Amino acid sequence: MRMTSIMAAVAATLLTAAPVLAQDVAITGAKVLTGTSVIENGTVLIRNGRVVSVGTAAAPAGIRTIDARGKIVSPGIVAVDSGLATSEVSSVRGTNDLSNSANSLTAAFDVSYGIDPWSFTLPTARLGGVTRAVVTPQHGGSGGGHSHDDSGFDDMTAGAGHGGFQSPGLFAGQAAVISLKDGTDILVKSKVAMTAPFGEAGARVAGGSRGGQFVLFKETLNEVRAYQRNKAAYDRGDMRALSLSRADLEALIPVIEGRMPLIVTVNRASDIRQVLRLAREEGLKVILDGAAEGWLVADEIAAANVPVLIHPITNLPSNFEMRAARMQNAAALNAAGVLIALKGNEGANHRARDIRYNAGNAVSHGLPFEAAIAAITVNPARIFGFAGQFGELKAGAAGDVVIWSGDPLEPLSQPEAVLIDGVEQPLDTARNLQLRDRYLPNAAGNRAPAYTY
Known about the structure:
alpha/beta, Urease, subunit C, domain 1, TIM Barrel, 2 domains, 8-stranded mixed sheet, 16 strands, 28% helix, disordered N terminus, Amidohydro-rel, Metal-dep_hydrolase_composite, Metallo-dep_Hydrolase, Amidohydrolase family protein
């Protein structure tokens, strides 16, 4: 009973704690990687949670100063295709809020409602220098930071389901951007992008063929346009039956108008070309996710001005969609002028640090170092409409800063300080560190009574 009371008191304290205010701070003497350039012996000045200046000037008098001589300073890492704060254990379905199986709610599924600011994944990700994340709904073709899909996707075929709506849906739902700052107000923006599988995964959704999916996809967009033109008729019941619910139809209006990007999971080069064709024909703003064979059509992707979320260490022909997968994919896409963002590995909710390791691997296979830094910081912000707001050390951007012990792409380097919106974040609240410290002897060499042996 006493333990229950203590836990209740702690919970109440956490719920009523005042937010930590940003401090004015100058970080001096470091090698500064701004996301777009490198400044030796640089100074990063932050006021009211935002970067005021980045250069070589001395810190203003009277301001708190962090001496970072011999260190490297970078923007916080931005995780893309992430499941942070929405999935705890991949094998426990009840902890995964990344997917929805109701055929009456597909495109309208909003992942932001499942975000948990107390998630164990967030403090651990901060230890890898991650300060923002694009949380993306999960589907049968998902990769990157998603949990494993246990929804029976492989058994799905297209058709009229409950209520006459298509089952399963062509769309997986809408992504959201979160901050990894300590506290409860972590949602930055919901509905930043729509998601949909193509290639083999999309073909299975549509009934078994790629051609079928493209035809069905185009017909679905036509239904959205018809609904948009005739909402009054829809309300009166004077329209033919549509394959999507009203919520899904409404959710897709920004997509057909080109205001909301569509994240398309696709890997085979021929499928990429067809997606680019679809985007041209339908006036869609697309983001390619995966693109394992993207290097084969890099010039076409660049000409279409389409960004790519890429897993840079994909190098095995694990299926017929990835026959030409290679470690030089990121370098080739970047060289062609494609805007790329690098992803973490499968299950990266708990291993968000893999993002920077993957960036290091991409550098070892031809991607320039500066391009790799951009691909995990400023590029994700640009891709999702947050250019100049975070992911970059420049005047006006959020004060998301990491002070590294060494090269951030070197596995032995560690963050020595992490600031988000100008607030220094705790680096001792990760569950793994708390468990470690729980079992360690104290300064006197004694263990907690329950753990003596």
